[in-house]
Amino acid sequence: xxxMFVFTILLGLWLLPFFDTAELYAFGEEGTTQFRYxxxxxxxxxxxxxxxxxxxxxxxxxx
Length: 63
Prior knowledge:
Order of helices and strands: HH
Oligomer: single chain
């Protein structure tokens, strides 16, 4: 499991220069500093984490 996390972080670091040179940003160039987009992303991370914890707690292995 730890290897999976390390792999995804290293993959992200390897892909970063390709996205920077193409100027590909999730919310546009000026949107990366807007509070509403940062808050939206944080809320979505919390929702996804809560869903994963719920599935793990109630052993929903079929998902």
